[in-house]
Amino acid sequence: MEFMISGRNLTVSDRFREYAGEKISKIESLGDKVQRVDAKVSKETNPRQTPGQLTVEVTVLGRAL
User: Fold this and answer.
1) In which domain, by residue range, is 36 found?
2) Is 18 helix (H, G, I), strand (E, B) or coil?
3) What is the pTM for the complete model shown?
């Protein structure tokens, strides 16, 4: 299983990468159906919104049954 994590408008820390890796390892229980997991972390820079608002998107790609 391949795992990619990327950040938009921020730098993804090593600690967060380790934490995400631990959580993503739970997906391995699905067996060999999962081929790739993409995680995108983005930070809103709109000054009218709550400062430091983060969004995490996780996409799981796998084989069809």
Assistant:
1) 2-62
2) helix
3) 0.72
- For residue range 13-60, list pLDDT tens digits in order: 999 899 888 888 888 777 778 888 899 999 887 777 666 688 889 998
Distances in Å between the alpha carbon of 15 and those of 11, 26, 46, 50, 60?
11, 18, 26, 23, 22
> What letter represents residue 49's amino acid?
Q
From 8, 30, 4, 28, select the one nearest 17 (Cα to Cα). Answer: 4
More confident residue, 32 or 7: 7
Question: Which residue type occupies 31?
Answer: G
CB contact at 8 A, 8 and 40:
yes
Domain count, the chain: 1
CATH assignment of the domain containing 21: 3.30.160.100
